[in-house]
Amino acid sequence: MVMAICMFSLQATAQEETDPELPATTIQPKPYKAAVGLRLSSSPAVVNNSISFRYFFKENHAIEALISLGDPIAFGALYQIHNPLAVEGLNWFYGGGAYLGFEKYYHTTKNKDVTEPNVGAQGVVGLDYKFAGIPLNISLDWKPELNLVREVFFEPAAVGVSARFTF
Asked: Biggest alpha carbon distance in the chain?
């Protein structure tokens, strides 16, 4: 029963997104307004493996909030501009923003664990793909970070992959 409902739902969505000028079997990706999912990162960036929420406030302008719940706990915000590529549903994007992280480490002078803030800037450039017929978006991005508070350091190797539910 559940399977039948899912199949009917996908078929109805596919029929809504079909462009009348293309053959009936071609499904166009439907633009999405918001998406929520996970971003997995390859590096020890302050904002690394995180929950991702993206919202388009204009056709190709979005904000993305990232929340990392590991160590460090971190919150990031990115302003992004998305541009279409020749492949339907595929965009490239770029942008920048800031982050605030709280890193826990052992302080040898105080002989105890302490938590200190990290504040910095982050940039982003990547590829974003919205699947046709299903509410799924994936992206691959490079998000370097420049830490400015506590210690100044640059993390250039922050590559990430995201998968998001779109609505």
From this structure: 71
